[in-house]
Amino acid sequence: MTLLAAALLTGWMGLASTPLLCADEVPRVELTEGSVHHGVVASQEANAAARSTLHVKANPGAFVRGAIRGEGLKLWLVDSQGERLRRLTNGDGAMATFMFIVDEHVPAELQVFGAADQTYELRIDSIIPITEQFQSVDRIESPTLAALLVKLQDGGDTNEFWDSIARNGSPLVEDNDSEKTLRAYQALVTFLWRGAKHNVRIFGAPSGDHDEMQRLSDSDVWFRSYVVSRKARINYRLAPDVPVFEGSFRDRRRAILATAQRDPFNPKFEPSDPVDPFDGSSVVELPDAPVVPWLTPSAQTPAGTVTTQTIQSEILKNQRDVHFYRPAGYESNAAGNALLIVFDGDRYLDEVNLPTILDNLIAAKKIPLTVAVLVSNPSPKARSVELPCNDDFVRFLSEELMPLVREQSIDADRENTVLVGASYGGLASSYAALKASDVFGNVLSQSGSYWWSPGGEFGAVDSGEPNWLIREYVRADPKPVRFALQAGTFETASEILSGNRHFRDCLQAKSYDVHYSEFVGGHGYFHWRYAIADGLIELLGN
């Protein structure tokens, strides 16, 4: 495999890197967290002393994680004399990750072995000091909770604390004093729950995972703190006493839904008329959350219309609802008309309120007159089969849906036709554009599930090598398709964020026109509604 192909397959972000080494130079290279080093493998005949040594600046006990890119490379941990101590990568594949603990008596020295004069790239992703690896469950970042703990240790109770929370609401939002230089940009957000017997988890945590809250001593206070951007919007639920049982990964993870509910101390939530405490989500907006003017209907803005038709697919052997949004003043065959084909159509209609966003964007002349065809799913099971890279679904779009759209007197050039989707829908948009670029000229992908591979879903042991579609794009000739890729900074546990960055880098390496953006938030229509207008303006903007 060529170095270019290897680069396409890994898609790492460009960071500050060390200079390229020549094979006959023997410098000592210092690596710190975030370093990206480009080097050349020395001749196999070179003795240990003649080899370039990569020194990781880390104290004993530190946990080091990184990766090396280049076909067939072996990375060794060596001592100060160049003697091999531990093989960190075995030379399989174009990219390999590694991790190790810095020994108390041996400095962290690395050497790369492979074909003579082969170039490589080595990255240090993180260095976690030993002091941050084994934190006590009583480690408290919140000044308010730290003061409460002192009060409890002096024999006090939590009544006054909870009275204050009832008056002022939760979560607690405090200054981030841990990083003074970032204080103006970050805040410490602490989620709270009063009273639970066994555990409390956060559904929608800024980590992107279902995080456990911890108990403050033996009190009725459960909490979890996060340092987040002051631009963040977070919607979440809290789940007390989640069942813990033997079962599959999926079943144990989904058990959080049995008790997940709105935060009883947070007065801000959606929808505005929940039927019970378990309905909807709590919402927190930090002070610098961006203002998005496109979400609210206005009496001064001409409103489009939405009609619904149930269609039968002979290709997919099922039927579904398709919603047609037409803007006010729409005329077929007018020059510059645009068309959106939107997956998960019911959700974009109800939770994103896409018609209102389009009304406002069109009225402000941010985009041309744009029709949206919102394609619903026959069932959750059908969605999980049709959206992840399904050739029959692409045929349905090209051979059944698009002719129906034209029958509705809806038209647009392929250059103004945009596939829109989130999660699996983002994956489906990119796959359909690859397979039918003669019909679809643009992709707006929101948190696309590019981790997907044939053979299993996320979390499954047999899910296969991830990023299957990305490799398909690497192998294929470039298509005349433009991309707007969006992902949330909280989408780390699911590999959504890393997968989208990877896809972006691969597309750019193949000379695609790509606009990439990250919003401060997680995975869900709550976040996508705030981001979608930016992607539409980027692709269709006047």
Give the tags.
eight-stranded mixed beta sheet; disordered N terminus; alpha+beta; single chain; five-stranded mixed beta sheet; 12 helices
Walkthrough of the structure:
This protein is globular. It is built from 12 helices and 27 strands. By secondary structure, it is an alpha+beta fold. The strands form 5 sheets. The chain has an 8-stranded mixed sheet, with helices on both faces. α1 (3-10) packs antiparallel against α11 (496-509) and α8 (391-407) crosses α9. The model is unreliable at 1-26 and 457-463 (pLDDT under 50). 23% of the residues lie in helices and 29% in strands.
Q: What's the topology here?
A:
Blueprint: H1 3-10, E1 17-18, E2 28-31, E3 36-40, E4 53-56, E5 63-69, E6 74-78, E7 84-90, E8 95-101, E9 109-113, E10 119-128, H2 143-153, H3 159-168, E11 172-175, E12 186-194, E13 200-203, E14 211-212, E15 214-215, E16 221-229, E17 233-240, H4 249-254, E18 269-270, E19 281-285, E20 305-313, E21 318-326, E22 338-343, H5 345-350, H6 354-363, E23 370-375, H7 380-386, H8 391-407, E24 417-422, H9 424-435, E25 442-446, H10 468-475, E26 482-488, H11 496-509, E27 513-519, H12 525-540
Parallel strand pairs: 1-3, 2-4, 22-23, 22-24, 24-25, 25-26, 26-27
Antiparallel strand pairs: 3-10, 4-9, 5-8, 5-10, 6-7, 6-9, 11-12, 12-16, 13-14, 13-17, 15-16, 17-19, 18-19, 20-21, 21-23
Helix pairs in contact: 1-11, 8-9
